[in-house]
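re: ur question from earlier - yeah i can do the single chain one, its not a big deal. heres the input i used so u can compare w yours
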Amino acid sequence: MHRFKVSTNLLLLAICLLAIGITGCSNSSSTTKGEESSKGSIPKKPLKIAVIISTLNNPWFVVLGETARDRAIELGCEATVFDSQNDTAKEAAHFDNVIAAGFAAIIFNPTDADGSIANVKRAKEAGVPVFCIDREINSSDAATTQLLSDNCSGCIALGKHFVEMVGEQGKYVELLGLVGDNNTWNRSKGFHAVVDRYEGLKMVAQQSADFDRSKAMEVMESILQSHDDVRAVFCGNDAMAMGAYQALLAAGKSDSVKVFGYDGSDDVIRSISEKKITATVMQYPKLMATTAAEYAYEYLVNGKKDFEQKIPVNVDLVTQQNIAEFAGFGKKE
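and the output i got, formated as tokens:
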């Protein structure tokens, strides 16, 4: 019996040592998995990615936000879309909540080129990388990268088509987007780089409609009361182009006034095919959003940090001549 007790005690001791050894391996294994996750394996707990969009009151931005969210989910992350409603205060609140909630990265469509910088810097200080899409911030060291459509060159192409369709003489109107958004001015500059060469083309009104369809209709209705002889309207985005068209339709001028937009939204692509809208510029929200989600994943999971600060995304002029090549928000597959 005494030998049996000694053997039992030794056996218990061996089991304890084995348990300690297993626990040590578990910790070591956990560290190894952590190291492996930085090399490419998917972490056990899904990473959370926030998609903060300037506004969801526009189908184009809905596509931008949902595409980024869906691609992040496909990559094994959790993703949530937040709507800033073009309000810098709401945007700031989203950043505070996202940082406090432990989101690992932010895919960001800013409301204001200057006003949004502080939010991005706050995230950076908290260790949360920010990937800007479509709209930029005026900072070269806050965001991890910024994926931006080549707005100026797109509107240079649109300006050339404008002259071809309208002619070298006549009155026209320009509807601007948000005055705090660089896209507004880059598009306007590209357009005027061409059109201002023709002295016979006279801009009789230039007003902001905040990239909003309803506001554009109201602004256009007001302009028509003073300038009922305009021949064309250049709009800084497609939502405003549709609003301007509605105003022209109500005034009985939709057949005599040519409307030009920018974005490549579904309703304008359809309207171009129906010869209601003259032309637009296709920027690719799905491409920008998908790429941003993949960059965020590369950063978080594979440790990639060497992104270019600004990455241009090509755009295409869409007219009634090449409309068959395009669908809403991109080219036909």
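The longest strand covers residues 201-208. not sure if urs matches, ping me
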